[in-house]
Amino acid sequence: MARRAERREAAGVVISRLALVPALLAAACAPVTEQAPAAASDPAVSGALFVAGKFAGTLAKVDLASGEEVARVASCANPHELATSPDDKHVALACYGGTSVDVFRTSDLAKVKSIDLGENARPHGIVWHENGHLYATAEGRKSIFVIRNPLGETETFEYATGQEGTHMLAIAPDAMHAWTTNLGSRTVSRVDLVTRRSPLSVTVGEEPEGIALSPDGEMLWVSARGSDMAYALDPKTMKRLKDVPVGDFPLRIVVRPQGDFAVTSDLADGALSVIDTAAGAKVRSLAVSSREEAEEKVQVTILFSADGSRIYVAETMANTIAEVDFASGEVLRRLPGDGGGDGIAITE
Q1: What is the strand order of the sheet 155-160 is part of?
Q2: Domain containing 86: what range?
């Protein structure tokens, strides 16, 4: 137990440094490991992976077929989460060290728009919805923003959560509601985007951070890094339906596009926990790195390929993005993630 507490304390220290002091990191931090060797090509894979380098203040594009970085540009201070447009022509970046959401062309990474969310915004979580609108948390303002028509005559609308550390978010398929995790308040909030009723906030574990909605919008999944748990909630009532023990320090959670599995990124043990969503139980663990390597690599953001066959795992301190075969659990390649790759997005 003592060793486990020490590991969790170390993981907490790493996360505190990475997420809670963005201005210092952006100014002072640099990649701490040697550049990873070139990834092997895979002609069976197409599309591109976009990587936000949180230490270097960069945005990079990695060609998935060749496994090589093909473009990189300066972005903003401590860039974090990324979201691609429905037509894959643009990628939006949350500037956690500042106040804006910046939009880049996916073809050449040219910046086409910078949308300011106001003083102390610190945007973090971001979703580009099928309706064309952008949605972003503004942690410093305890709110979320709806950004309508982000590529044209942009309008922004702010919705207060009243909670500390509004960090990650999910948006309903019909865009009528949003859900956020609030690290500081230990809560998850349901925000009505139409009637503007007061948000409904419920306590969910210790340090809830990861959040994901099932494709049909019927189940909300939350990972609480301080509890080593994943929770299934009814997104309408916010009632807790299932409690699922997972790995050590589950920082993020994603749902497979098919809706059959949810996966947590377990930072402190370097693994992914796979949850059968129907059964509400962990069914296996995928080792991305060893526990010893986990403290050096610090895996953070995870996402599925569109067909659900692969998982991409940002190993922030190793400057790599692990590509994992979901069926076998094998790490297929390690792609470039230079500059402290954290936020990732994909086009196919």
Answers
A1: 123-128, 134-138, 143-148, 155-160
A2: 2-252+334-347
Residue 314 lies in a domain: no
Provide the CATH number for the domain around residue 132: 2.130.10.10
CA Rg value for the chain:
18
Question: Each residue's pLDDT tens digit in the chain (348 positions)?
Answer: 444 455 455 555 455 545 433 333 333 333 333 344 568 898 889 999 999 999 999 999 999 999 999 999 999 999 999 999 999 999 999 999 999 999 999 999 999 999 999 999 999 999 999 999 999 999 999 999 999 999 999 999 999 999 999 999 999 999 999 999 999 999 999 999 998 899 999 999 999 999 999 999 999 999 999 999 999 999 999 999 999 999 999 999 999 999 999 999 999 999 999 999 999 999 999 999 998 888 889 999 999 999 999 999 999 999 999 999 999 999 999 999 999 999 999 998
Question: Pseudo-torsion of CA 188, 88, 69, 54, nearest 10°?
Answer: -30
- The neighbour count for residue 131, using CB atoms within 10 Å, is 12
- Contact yes or no for 170/214 (Cβ under 8 A): no
Report CA-CA distances (Å) from 56 to 53, 67, 94, 208.
5, 21, 15, 27
Pairing of strands 90-95, 331-336: unpaired
Report the Cα 113 to chain-centroid distance in Å. Answer: 22
3-class secondary structure, 31: coil
**Total tally of structural domains belonging to the chain:** 1
Q: Which three-class secondary structure state does DSSP give residue 293?
A: helix
**Closest to 83 in 3D by CA, of 116, 46, 144, 126:** 126
Sheet holding 177-182, edge to edge: 166-171, 177-182, 187-192, 200-203
Grouping H, G, I as helix, E, B as strand and the rest as coil, residue 228 is: coil
